[in-house]
Specification:
Blueprint (H helix, E strand, L loop, with lengths): L3 H10 L3 H13 L5 E5 L1 E2 L2 E3 L3 H15 L5 E6 L9 H8 L6 H8 L7 H12 L3 H6 L3 H9 L26 H12 L6 E8 L4 H19 L2 E8 L6 E2 L9 E2 L2 E2 L1 E2 L7 H5 L5 E5 L11 H28 L6 H13 L4 E2 L7 H12 L3 E8 L7 E6 L4 E7 L9 H8 L3 E2 L3 E5 L20 E7 L2 E7 L12 E6 L17 H4 L1
Parallel strand pairs: 2-3, 3-20, 4-5, 4-11, 5-6, 13-20
Antiparallel strand pairs: 1-14, 7-10, 8-9, 11-17, 12-15, 13-16, 13-17, 14-15, 18-19
Length: 504
Amino acid sequence: MLTKEDLECLERKGISEDTFSEQLRRFQEGFPYMKVERAAVVNDGISVIDEADKSAYIELWRTYLASGCNVVKFVPASGAASRMFKSLYAFLDSEGEMADSEKIFFEQIEKFAFYSELNAKCKRNEGREISRLLELDKHKTIVENLLTKKGLNYGFLPKGLLLFHNYTDAPRTPFEEHLVEGALYAKDSKGKIQLHFTVSNEHITYFKSLLDAKKGGYAYRFGADYDVSFSVQKPSTDTIAVDMNNEPFRSNGELLFRPGGHGALIENLNAIDADVIFVKNIDNVTLDAYKQSTIEYKSVLAGLLIKVQKKLFEYQECLDSDDVSDDQLQKMLAFCETTLAVTNKFNPLDSKEDKKAYLKMIFNRPLRVCGMVKNEGEPGGGPFLCQNPNGTISAQILESSQFDMSDEKQVEILKSSTHFNPVDLVCAVKNYRGEKYDLTQFIDENTGFISVKSKDGKELKALELPGLWNGAMSNWNTLFVEVPIDTFTPVKVVNDLLRPVHQG
């Protein structure tokens, strides 16, 4: 099946023939659906932090930050902004009436942070300001200056580099808002702020240029030393595309590979040497005036992480000793169920050694605390309690594609979900001896999925790797915590920037 050129292509990408064959097998056999027990809800899988505990966790996190720990803020930022402007692209191609979203865009165009730069581009390229172009019904000309190379080129740039927010001194991009956020909850005892952005190859120079231009100002403002790094998605995490008969898809005679989705970023996350890692999407940012809730709850989640990790470390040291008592083992088993939401449903734990082996397996894993917001209709994953191959039921973040929609009971569980995953994670990735976990060892490979795409007008099947906060972290210890909805302020379409949290 594979030609000499195919083998050379695999070698260039760092993809083994075994991996290639395994991917083809997945297309043939598909992925099993998750066995979902029930939706995680408040007091059954999701914790609500009261005011007293909230203050205690914030203080615990501040103490930890002052102790000389190594903290990194990890931001997936490779997504192109083109989907933000889907309606405007449709408008460019249309001949009919404007849709309501386009009318709103033009009616309120002066409110966008990019307005000033867009107006300057229009004056240079068209000899007219935006206001005059609107009077002349040149709406498409304005959009062309926004999205194409001749103007701001926003159709090419990633979200992280677009102007989102207006301030009195200068407008800010999401990239800059994350620099600010990092200073407010992740600055260590030496004033160091570490951030890591995963970006695409074609955009990395743009990010570095913006960092060079802006870092000094933010460092001065926050009395901080910024350590900002970048990485790209590894070519070895690309996946083969196939035709509708599950044969390798070829474009101009060459094998077609596609990015494996955000699950590929587990490799990037794994390369980071840190004690604690915050994970947050690039577009989930807000104005300074609205940041307080975000800062507060980031600290709460981190404080809870440190508290639980401390207890896990104590238990593991105890398990490694020879004098662990039956009472201690019972306390640990109760901790599994009440704090970690891990239930042993299938494995008999008849002897002391069985219990010790089981507890060691559960405790010796990366730990994450995940903020969850009440579901208000946003698309995406949510928190559930699921059966695992190791005979446990544990907390998992699932997408709807992981449910068997032909099973009425599973559909009902999906519908009963009350909360949504905003990608608000705090992770502890070292064991009690201070050794970093190999995060690739905790992936559930059965949690990928297959989607239908197109290339050159032909349908194809694409293979998505287990998602970063889904199957790629499936075998982590996971805690779900309710966080306020105002900590979730994403920008999915351009008109989202007109919401109060982005306007002030």
